[in-house]
Design brief:
The chain is an alpha/beta fold and 318 residues long. Among the domains are: 92 residues, no CATH class; 45 residues; 77 residues, Nucleotidyltransferase, domain 5. The chain binds zinc ion (ZN). The site of zinc ion (ZN) has 8 residues, from loops.
Length: 318
């Protein structure tokens, strides 16, 4: 088993050389056929005109990035009335015309982008030695063909934000398979009516509480049964419980506040009485009790600075 196994089998390729440039494995490849058919008229031609090289990214090998250097030949078309005078040979099994990555690498990128999205997919790809940007992954996903839309028997309808607070649409979900069926850029009832008219067969429409979708369902699918989805039932129940709690608990809160204020007043009164009682007892039982009347004691307490001696006292000292 030679290095030829590194190439796609059945593509008619010949591996000329394998080079290691830094951390990148370069495969020098050419086509084995002597000529190629003209893409315009289909006539086989081996009239060599010129050649050039295409650099094509491929799946990594042994944890190293891989680049296929494909030698492409240009041939002359031998049909005089043909619109193409020259044409380049193609390898449709390996790579698309003008593409910079092999089909199998693009398929890998599409799978990563669908599973992880742009930025996380780009980080995983770089870790797996097939670096690419997040925008490339998103562009590959957008280029994928739209899967055919099958009308589900149970259809979920709800509002969807393309840009929250700015642009809204309508999302349609298969209630049985839990898959997104379609996205309508217009959130109006008319858009849903036209979609339901184009996709008949819906038996149950699961919607929100808004009347827009109810009216649209009646117009677009008059025979379908309308039900409210589980989230809105729970939301309704939570709203009702909240209103009930406010109505029932508000008087209880008022009564409780009044009781607490009354209890606080009682505590303050008890504390004041207790303090007065302690002061009264201490005055009655003190051994150094001042025999003067209360008015004099009060005056003495307010003027604690010693009184200067009287003039006749000084004369007595002299
Ligand atoms: Zn031709």
């Amino acid at each position: 088993m030679g290095p030829q196994v590194l190439l796609l089998p059945g593509a008619g390729l010949v591996l000329e050389q394998v080079q290691l440039c830094g951390q990148i494995v370069v495969l020098l490849v050419r086509l084995a056929a002597l000529g190629a058919p003209c893409p315009a008229c289909g006539r086989w031609s081996e009239a060599f005109h010129s050649s050039y090289q295409r650099s094509i990214a491929d799946l990594p090998i042994a944890d190293r990035q891989v680049v296929v250097q494909l030698q492409v030949r240009r041939f002359r078309c031998l049909t005089k009335a043909c619109s193409r005078q020259t044409f380049a040979e193609q390898v449709p099994l390996l790579v698309d015309r003008y593409a910079r990555r092999t089909r199998r690498l693009r398929s890998d990128f599409e799978a990563i982008g669908l599973m992880l999205g742009g930025r996380p997919g780009s980080r995983l790809s770089a870790r797996q030695k097939k670096p690419t940007s997040r925008m490339t992954l998103l562009r590959l996903i957008r280029a994928l063909p739209e899967p055919p839309v099958e009308t589900p028997s149970i259809l979920g309808v709800d509002e969807f934000a393309f840009r929250r607070g700015r642009r809204y649409g309508t999302i349609l979900i298969d209630g049985s398979g839990h898959q997104i069926v379609d996205l309508l850029e217009d959130p109006s009832a008319d858009a849903l009516v036209s979609w339901l008219s184009e996709h008949p067969g819906t038996e149950v429409i699961c919607r929100d509480r808004d009347g827009v979708y109810a009216r649209a369902a009646r117009r677009g699918a008059p025979t379908a049964m309308q039900v409210v989805d589980r989230w809105h039932i729970v939301h309704n129940l939570a709203d009702a419980l909240e209103r009930l709690a406010v109505r029932v608990l508000a008087p209880l809160h008022k009564q409780r506040s009044a009781d607490e204020m009354s209890m606080l007043d009682n505590r303050r009164t008890t504390a004041m009485l207790s303090t007065l009682s302690r002061i009264s007892n201490s005055e009655r039982t003190s051994p150094h009790r001042d025999p003067r009347p209360a008015q004099q004691r009060s005056n003495n307490c307010c003027n604690r600075r010693p009184t200067p001696p009287q003039s006749h006292h000084r004369s007595e000292v002299r």
